[in-house]
Write a structure and sequence with these properties.
The protein has about 325 residues and is an alpha/beta fold. About 35% of the residues lie in helices and about 15% in strands. It has a 7-stranded mixed beta sheet, sandwiched between helices. It has a two-stranded antiparallel ribbon with strand order 5-9. The chain is globular.
Length: about 325
């Protein structure tokens, strides 16, 4: 029996209905003989949402809420720090500070809130990391988009088939602490201000390159209309614009609604989808186009992860 499995999430008030489905699914698919602890890092979260989300906890699946305020002052709202090129949120960076914030853990799971968990997270936690810093899945959702594939290789400096998605991470917290990952990240951020299209994800790829354990794709299954559905699903990750609470006919979308139904936020999720306007959908399309165009442009920048690394600067830990 594992003593306790720490599982980190990061959200703000706007994502509470979607985290509720993620937590509900993780709890429903946990085994009673194991002990789990969801630690929700938040920027702004109302007392009401904390109370409602806390009501999901069970005897073997605890939920704790931790505010994130200090240490992130240097991360500001610039295009290179925006998620999907369209909005700025500090929550995407929280995962990078987990090792030092929680010295009581040597290993942990981090999961984005736009997921449903269909497998037992204990099975993910049991995977041996060895001397790798993180375990993650290769990002297959955009690897066939030529400008983005070029961005992975020419800007971030990693093979396009080895570029990982940071939405599901098995983290070697002990090793990351010993290597002072947080200080290294902030030094790179504040020294070079790398232009990014996936801010935290690009830094993780560049810094941890060569020390990543590649997980089975079932642990970070992302909707992809150009690919056959996976036969085995452990975690479904509604990445980028593939949100079933925004659009119809999203691959694997039925699982979100299944676990949203008794999450305590079903009506909010349904209302969100019903009110998702044509203007918002148009803006999504424009942001996706911008994302692809910026990927192509950044490759030509004078400062990229790859160019700085090739100049002899320590980028990788």
């Amino acid at each position: 029996m594992i003593k306790e499995i720490p599982i980190f999430f990061s959200i703000d008030d706007g994502y509470a209905p979607f985290l509720a489905a993620a937590l509900n699914s993780a709890i429903k698919n946990s085994k009673p003989q194991n002990r789990y602890k969801a630690i929700v890092l938040y920027q702004e979260l109302s007392d009401e949402n904390i109370s409602r989300l806390s009501s999901l906890k069970t005897d073997n699946f605890d939920i704790e809420f931790v505010p994130m305020e200090k240490g992130l002052e240097s991360i500001t709202d610039t295009m290179s720090n925006r998620l999907r090129c369209d909005y700025f949120t500090l929550t995407i960076y929280f995962r990078l500070f987990i090792p030092n914030m929680f010295p009581e853990y040597d290993k942990a799971i981090y999961i984005d809130s736009d997921v449903v968990v269909l497998g037992d997270l204990a099975d993910l936690f049991r995977i041996e990391l060895g001397d790798n810093y993180i375990g993650a899945c290769a990002d297959k959702s955009v690897v066939e988009v030529p400008p983005l594939a070029a961005y992975m290789e020419e800007a971030v400096g990693v093979d396009k088939h080895k570029y990982i998605n940071s939405g599901v991470l098995l983290m070697n917290l002990k090793a990351l602490r010993e290597k002072e990952f947080d200080k290294h990240f902030l030094n790179l951020l504040n020294t070079y201000h790398f232009d990014c299209i996936a801010p935290d994800q690009d830094y993780l790829n560049a810094i941890c390159s060569g020390k990543i354990l590649y997980l089975d794709e079932s642990w970070d299954a992302m909707p992809n209309d150009k690919a056959e559905p996976l036969s085995k699903l452990n975690i479904v990750h509604y990445n980028l614009f593939s949100k079933p609470w925004c659009y119809d006919d999203i691959q694997y979308g039925e699982y979100f609604w299944q676990y949203s139904e008794d999450s305590g936020y079903y009506n909010e999720a349904k209302n969100y989808k019903a009110s998702y306007s044509d203007e918002q959908k148009k803006a999504d399309s424009e942001c996706l186009e911008l994302l692809v165009n910026r990927g192509a442009q950044i490759c030509n920048n004078k400062i990229t992860f790859k160019k700085i690394f090739e100049s002899g600067v320590k980028v990788r830990l």
